[in-house]
Amino acid sequence: MQGEYGSDGLFHCIVGGLRYDDFDKAGKISIGKISKILEGVRIARITQGITSQNIDFGLSVLYVRSHYFKVYPSFYSLSQTSSLKFTTFTSHIGRTSFCVDANAFDLTTGELLATCSTHSVFVSMETRRPTPIPPEMAQMSQVIPTEDKRPVSGPDFPAQPSACFTQKRMVFPGDTDANEHLNQAVFIRFCFDCASGAALEGKLPSFVHDIIFSDAKTVWVRYVREAEVGEELTLSCWEDGDQKQTVWVEIYQESQVIGQCQIQFYDDELNNSTSKSEEARAISKL
């Protein structure tokens, strides 16, 4: 994946011609898939900066701390003939962490499809503790402030209710990144899979069928700890008691929390999930 910096200070990247396997069984691009594409855009941006400025990370690695997605209805109308344009920029730089915001547009119409704010921290491979950002990287990064505060603080995660849907899941080699840790896009897929399982077992009152047939409006993810190959994870999911369109997912390994996720859905999709799932199943039989 390649891109370039524009005169506006933004990093521009085009993804042309979506593929059949970019879409899920509901005929939509999942949040996990767009997260993976955005991961590629961020890496292309960082790689170009490292190459042009000869930046040395030393014994440090980047660790994604959180994601916050805002998804607009038109995102769910994308097809294989669609092409996407991404713009990314640094929205915040601290001592050990920074935020990169990304906007996804329909290349043909210019319509904004989704936004994502990613909070990343530099971590020492020796101490596993946050370490200062390389000064060369801080100097080369033009900060473009946003209207909302960065990093996104996220919601207050509630305590698990006594009765909620729970499932076990093993981390396999194909689920991990180059650091042998559970990849952030796979983490998101795990959360949506857990929510689907909860819906299918009738544990989410607002959802009659697989949650994949409903459209997410916002997705907030906090990555707390690393998960490695062979570890068994426990996932718990429940619907918010006050906001019926809000689903919470928590992942932990033994007694340690690995990560947390909040998914908010469009209200009208809660009512349309039945008809949309039946339509998708009919198309799949053609």
Overview features:
single chain; 286 residues; alpha+beta; Thiol Ester Dehydrase, Chain A; 2 domains; 11-stranded antiparallel beta sheet; globular; disordered C terminus
Structure, described:
InterPro entries: HotDog_dom_sf (IPR029069). With 286 residues, this protein is of the alpha+beta class. The chain has 2 domains: 1-153, Hotdog Thioesterase (Thiol Ester Dehydrase, Chain A, Roll), CATH 3.10.129.10; 154-286, Thiol Ester Dehydrase, Chain A. It is 22% helix and 33% strand. It is built from 4 helices and 11 strands; from the N terminus they run E-E-H-E-E-E-E-H-E-H-E-E-E-E-H. An 11-stranded antiparallel β-sheet has the order 1-2-4-5-6-3-8-11-10-9-7. A hairpin with a 5-residue loop joins strand 5 (97-106) and strand 6. It is globular. The two termini are 34 Å apart. Mean pLDDT is 88; it is low at 269-286.
What structural class do helix, strand and pairing data support?
alpha+beta
CATH architecture group name of the largest domain = Roll
- Kindly state the percentage of residues in helix: 10-25%
Pick out the low-confidence regions.
269-286
C-alpha geometry: globular
Mean pLDDT: 88
Strand order of the largest sheet: 1-2-4-5-6-3-8-11-10-9-7
SS strand fraction: 25-35%
What order do the SSEs take from the amino end to the carboxyl end, as H and E? Answer: EEHEEEEHEHEEEEH
Major beta sheet, specifics? 11 strands, antiparallel
The CATH class of the largest domain is identified as Alpha Beta
C-alpha Rg (nearest Å): 19 Å
InterPro entries: HotDog_dom_sf
